[in-house]
Amino acid sequence: MADEAMISLRGVAKNFGGGGQEIHAVQEVTLDIQRGEIFGIVGFSGAGKSTLVRCMNLLEVPTKGQVFVDGVELTGLSKKELNGQRKKIGMIFQQFNLFASRTVLENVAFPLKHSGLSKEQIREKAARLLDFVELGEKKDAYPSQLSGGQKQRVAIARALASDPKVLLCDEATSALDPQTTHSILQLLKKLNQELGITIVVITHQMQVVKEICQRVALMEAGRVVEQGWVYDIFAQPQQEITKDFVASADNSNQLSEVLAETSVRESLGQGARVFRFRFLHTSGGKALVSQISREFGIDLNIIHGNLEMIDGRFLGVLILLAQGDKQAVDDALAYARAQGVNVEELRG
Amino acid sequence: MNEILTNLFPYVMKKPEQLWKSLSETLQMTLWSGSIMFVLGLALGLLLTVTREGGILENKGVYQVLDKVINIFRSIPFVILIALLMNLTKWIMGTRIGVRGVIVPLVFGSVPFFARQVDAALAGVDKGLVEAAQAMGTSSLGIIFRVYLREGAPAIARGTTITLINLVGLTAMSGYVGAGGLGDYAITYGYNYNRIDIVWAAVIVTVLLVSIIQAIGSLVARKTTH
């Protein structure tokens, strides 16, 4: 079955605690992650995303439901069989979790003990993996001598040592600065493309999703509330929480705060309305703003603009201030929508 | 040199072999019971850590029993422990007097303390490391040896140092069962005959012994920290 999902969750739930104070960290999640994709899981802290990713290698045993990875049902395995399957599922963490008492090379070699390789082969493989993550010259250093980004590279090399088919990343870039985050994400992209590893990225940073994921699921209160192609999520977010996350990634989230300022409202003038136009790659290349301004006799003022590539396709965002006859503005908006532009009114 | 010593420690120098014999007895007691204590305490401390709630081999029953037994033995004063264990000592060692007769009480007196030290040391091992090892498919035994013991080594070395120094303190009471040692030397030859130089000699040798243990412990802790 070539089209079988790499990771398949079926009605997975996880409760913590007992008695009257049970916490439902994950509730009835059914999700398929395809072979070779980079899949993002996004949510605020406490949404259950870290618990969910831990259910994928059974670090957390689900209270209910089934977990399949590469066609094997993990939830039905003995402890020994599970340890065997876990070697196919690499994992990296926010806090890197390197062994302080071992050198960089020994850290990478850790999963290779009892792998049937000789000591010499283990050293060679670990050194090769360190070269892959561009840290070959640090092999005899201890983790305490490395920067955060270097530590995460070592952790990635260690996760790759047992030739996994899947890599789970639990907030892997959250402790890193933006530049280092970018380089780690590029490395993840590289191992996805060159080694064909399926990657699951848990994050609260929409920027991370935008940069490397093809598909994304949004979690809230233990449930997946929305999922789809990253482009579609950015172009047409449906749920409130999704809109929040999307806005956080294109800087328009501060806009409503700015608009709420009385001084700003006054300077914009009476009767002004603010809209967000999302131009999709299907919207066409017409000069839409000047066209509707002319044809409907309204004034449009651009106060914010953004254009980016997501998963290889363009997405443009404009924040527009519209002034004029109410009916004319409404007609103009209807026209814009008909042209395939996603229009949303923002309120201060 | 000899003259100075004879002036400062007249009674010690009259029979120096008594001091060396006492030191040798203290060393024997410390090394024997210390070795046994290290193995047993390490095992029990590990058992506490792995069977605790959330541990890698969580087992409420084992943990509760072990926890209680350790508390009970920790609360019994050593002199009473010697008396309490007399039959067990006789059964294990064949005698309840002499150096052989005090090893069992010394082990019982130090293992619970050391098990707690080991447990505390292992609690300092980042849970994330255990999680990472589990995610890599490491067995429970692998986690114990390759994560807990290895990463906890500096803290275990410090705990061992404290426990060995305590053990030296306990051996001072072994005169009660005729095991000799530096404590017995100070009381029998010094205190009872009002010979203060003998007491001072016992103090100085004990302080040197403890300092050596501390120095070795600190060295091991430093060498295992990276």
Describe this structure in words.
Chain A has helices at residues 49-55, 79-86, 104-109, 119-132, 148-160, 178-195, 206-212, 230-235, 240-249, 255-260, 262-268, 288-296, 326-338; strands spanning 7-16, 23-33, 38-42, 64-69, 72-73, 89-93, 166-170, 198-203, 215-220, 223-229, 273-279, 299-310, 313-323, 341-346. With 348 residues, chain A is of the alpha/beta class. Chain A folds into two domains: 7-230, 3-Layer(aba) Sandwich (Rossmann fold), CATH 3.40.50.300; 252-346, ACT domain (Alpha-Beta Plaits), CATH 3.30.70.260. In chain A, the strands form three sheets. Chain A has a six-stranded mixed beta sheet with strand order 6-7-8-3-9-10, sandwiched between helices. In chain A, helix 4 packs across helix 5 (148-160). The longest helix of chain A is centred in the middle third of the chain and has 18 residues, at 178-195. Chain B has 226 residues and is mainly α. Chain B has one domain (18-223): MetI-like fold (Orthogonal Bundle), CATH 1.10.3720. In chain B, 81% of the residues lie in helices and 0% in strands. Chain B is elongated, with a radius of gyration of 21 Å. The chains are: A alpha/beta (348), B mainly alpha (226). Chain A binds chain B through residues 57, 59, 80, 82-87, 89-91, 93, 95, 97, 99-102, 110-111, 113, 142-144, 158-159, 162, 168, and chain B through 126, 128-129, 131-139, 142, 146-147, 150-151, 153, 224, 226.
